[in-house]
């Protein structure tokens, strides 16, 4: 599979994950989100995306599950959030769909919570 952005072809896996994470950009994230019917990325979307990217690139390629994202975003946003709050942002699974839009490789762990 491939995505087209600004006249450039960006290769993806059959699951829609980037083949080369260096191809990722905020514009690409917006295009991927639109293609997955998420719509415009809000500040909260970006908080999750930036958290996932930071965990992967700055923490030994850690790919947090939904429970870890809930804890991190509760701390970030200063309020207790629930699983449904994250699924409202990334309906197909915050850790997997969020990770895909964040330009991370496909997670091989089972389950999201």
TrEMBL record:
One of its GO terms (molecular function) is sulfur carrier activity. One of its GO terms (cellular component) is cytoplasm. It is found in: Cytoplasm. Signal peptide: none annotated. SUPFAM superfamilies: DsrC, the gamma subunit of dissimilatory sulfite reductase. InterPro entries: DsrC-like_C, DsrC-like_dom_sf, DsrC-like_N, DsrC/TusE. GO terms for biological process: tRNA wobble position uridine thiolation. Keywords: Cytoplasm. Belongs to the DsrC/TusE family. This is TusE/DsrC/DsvC family sulfur relay protein.
